[in-house]
Write a structure and sequence with these properties.
The chain is mostly helical. The protein has six helices and two strands. The protein has one domain.
Length: 184
């Protein structure tokens, strides 16, 4: 576990790098892949994205790298300002670090992070990917947000709990163990 602010920022950075790429892949391929191929008549998802001129975001088509960059900035900002601090406090309401089993406490932090970050990032995604060409309607925005939460929450929960966080914790321990051993 990260011990100080600098380590928490590095941990959040590593988490967001993996998570944003996973979610962009999930959103483009799994959630929207069939629709993109149907609209363009392309044989594959990347061909459909190329045919459209990129991924629809902010009312225009942007290259995938730009989508990843925008989502990265939003996710890192939210994780650093809200996700990490609030999830730790929520987990501390149920478990005591150092007293309760570390796996239980870490799992509680992960669950609290997903419970906070998924609705927040889904709201940002509903705004970023809103079909502005059809005009703006707040009810459409809310419906899109709810749809995104329903799609994203199970994916976020299972990938964070069983794949992303164990991977990041392993990488984090390796990075800071080497640094500590080199200093000693």
């Amino acid at each position: 576990m990260p011990q100080n602010r600098r380590e928490r920022m590095i941990f959040a950075l590593l988490t967001v790098i993996v998570t944003v790429h996973a979610f962009v892949f999930y959103s483009i391929y799994v959630v929207n892949g069939s629709a993109l191929m149907r609209i363009t008549g392309a044989d594959g998802v990347l061909g459909a994205v190329r045919a459209l001129g990129g991924v629809y975001m902010f009312g225009r088509y942007l290259p995938i790298w730009a989508v990843v960059a925008v989502e990265f900035v939003c996710a890192y900002t939210l994780e650093a300002l809200m996700g990490s601090p609030c999830s730790f406090r929520l987990a501390c309401r149920v478990f005591t670090p150092g007293k309760d089993h570390p796996m239980l406490f870490e799992s509680a932090v992960i669950c609290a992070t997903v419970a906070l970050m998924c609705p927040a990032m889904s709201l940002l995604a509903a705004v970023m990917y809103y079909p502005y060409y059809a005009g703006f309607n707040v009810w459409t925005l809310l419906a899109n947000w709810l749809k995104l939460v329903c799609f994203n929450f199970p994916f976020a929960f299972f990938t964070q709990l069983f794949f992303i966080q164990p991977l990041i914790r392993t990488v984090f321990r390796a990075l800071f163990r080497r640094k500590g051993a080199a200093e000693a």
